[in-house]
């Protein structure tokens, strides 16, 4: 994993994060929460991986927004990131974990070549107030072992808004190709 000096050397070469120099820790770059969240529509009782599930957007006002316990909220980092030659890892803050807040369920690792903001899968064990622009996580960087020319250009490449699952497009592509 890269330390502070390693990250500094790679900024704007293999690693880019908006305003990274002001958010650099000992072995990570701090990221902050955007000003909106998405939730899956309450009228949907079952989410279906083969369908596009409807969402609604909630604005997070400066005075904060209370999130409910045991409900999934999709947020995003304010920071646009780019990574080449490294595998980024997004981790939640210890301070938020101590309040029962998770910022990602299992999607902590990024891909070589990814560009965009990070979608956060936020949940809490009890009602909690979140604020726009609050520190939300840390990105760590692991050197890529293997062919660095193989870069991610998938369905989430270039995203800037919190992004709901696009897994349904994988099923749509199979149907278009005539496979079931």
Question: Summarize this, please?
Answer:
The protein has 180 residues and is mainly beta. The chain contains three helices and 13 strands. The protein has a single domain (4-176), classed as Deoxyuridine triphosphatase (dUTPase) (Deoxyuridine 5'-Triphosphate Nucleotidohydrolase, Chain A).
Structural key phrases:
three-stranded antiparallel beta sheet, Deoxyuridine 5'-Triphosphate Nucleotidohydrolase, Chain A, 180 residues, 11% helix, single chain, mainly beta, globular
Architecture overview:
This protein is mostly beta strands and 180 residues long. It has a single domain (4-176), classed as Deoxyuridine triphosphatase (dUTPase) (Deoxyuridine 5'-Triphosphate Nucleotidohydrolase, Chain A, Distorted Sandwich). It has three helices and 13 strands; from the N terminus they run αββββββββαβββββα. It has helices at 4-10, 94-97, 168-176, and strands at residues 15-17, 29-32, 36-40, 55-59, 65-67, 73-76, 81-83, 86-92, 101-102, 115-116, 119-124, 128-130, 135-143. It has a three-stranded antiparallel sheet with strand order 1-7-10, with no helix packed on it. It has a three-stranded antiparallel sheet with strand order 2-13-8.
